[in-house]
Prior knowledge:
Largest sheet: 13 strands, mixed
Amino acid sequence: MLSNYLKIAVRSLLRNKTHTFINVFALALGLATCLLILLFVQHELCYDRFNKKAGQMVRVTFRGKMEGGEMREANVMPPVAAVLKKEYPEVLEATRLRNYGLQRVSFGDKTLREDNLAFVDSNFFEVFTIPLVKGNARSALSRPNSVVITKRTAKKYFGEADPIGKVLDFKDGHESFTVTGLIDEVPETSHFHFDFFASLSSIAESRSDSWMTSNYFTYLVLPRGYDPQKLEAKLPQVMEKYVSPQMQKAMGLSFAQFKAKGNSIGLYLQPLTEIHLHSDLTGELEPAGDIKYVYIFTVVAVFMLLIACINFMNLSTAGASKRSREVGIRKVLGSRKLELIRQFLTESLLLTALSMLLALGLVSLSLPFFNQLTGLQLRLSFTASPWLLPGLLALGLTTGLLAGSYPAFFLSAFKPVLVLKNRTAGSRSSSGLRSGLVVFQFFISTCLIVGTTIVYQQLSYIRHKKLGYDRDQVVVVQENWWLGKNVDEFRRELKQDPR
């Protein structure tokens, strides 16, 4: 039966080549646009999920109110990790990361400025799933002055030579670090990206017991299925126990007196998988995304798919007059309504399959330009994304049934006596529905065009806004703390330069 449906469907599509081409190409454009947007949405939603323990991991954050000001920081104090691991048995692992900004790194006669260097605890690669190509994850950073680097960094400093055992000089810290491990690279969907991971034990500050300073990104691993809010409810006790004595010494008032003045400070837990899209904290390692944009793009993708499906319905029902006699003759010969519905749905699914193949080709061609526009590295890979094939099949099936349902029921409802006399029952109602679909289609299109125009005008305004000075003639000197007490001398030297 299915082979018969397919045979008739192919004959019908080939008999109306122009109509078939328009339907297939229009639906392919809609599917390609929808698929591109969904690739972006999926990319945003899978941040940090490459970690095997992602569902168990949380980041410790700091929030507070002091003298009317609000503090929301992504990093916390040096001893937080050790204290939480000691105080609470539900904390299975705790690890820290310290970002040190720009550093001058040298090997031999080559010295480069690096801004992607971090100091991490020795168990960092046991907590985060970043496999080492060379070296041991457990012991690579167990000793001070050891460092794990990426393949790209190794090639930059050592060429094709084996980097393990080579020594890199960190000029600004006046220390040398031995390469003990090599990683490929940090996955793109991570909330941090570094090329150097140096041992945190090399820094004396990392052993500080001060609760008055922060700078340490602290991550915990909790038991599988454990509710982080249960641990979060216990954290005020830690603040009372450890912060109060130091606050009394530094500020001359107890923690209770501090809170009595309307101030408040505390530690909070943030699920690892929510950092990229749901964080409202300052001091993030990298600019975060926004879940609102994910919602907006998802709605746009659905609207584009709806427009394509409505277009398909209208074209199919508009050409119904050409197939009315076919339906009438089939019914006279004994075809039942259900069989005709199956036939027309088969044609719809076949058209959708052709459109999906064409859409995949369009996506493959446009992905390089889309990646250049967004700065991402999206790929249409069935091996890298196991969800892609079942997702495409589900999308194609849904689209085919959605787009073909009304034409199938509409065409199968023709009455033989009327259509063989060139009279189609229900033409007025079907015409009204098609008109409604066209109006809805134009409404969505108009909304998308207006929204795009507004966004374009806003971006154009930002680019061309006169700031009162020539941006091309202004140079920003960063990391000028290196100058120490020589800032005034540096300024005088610059003023003597005629440029």
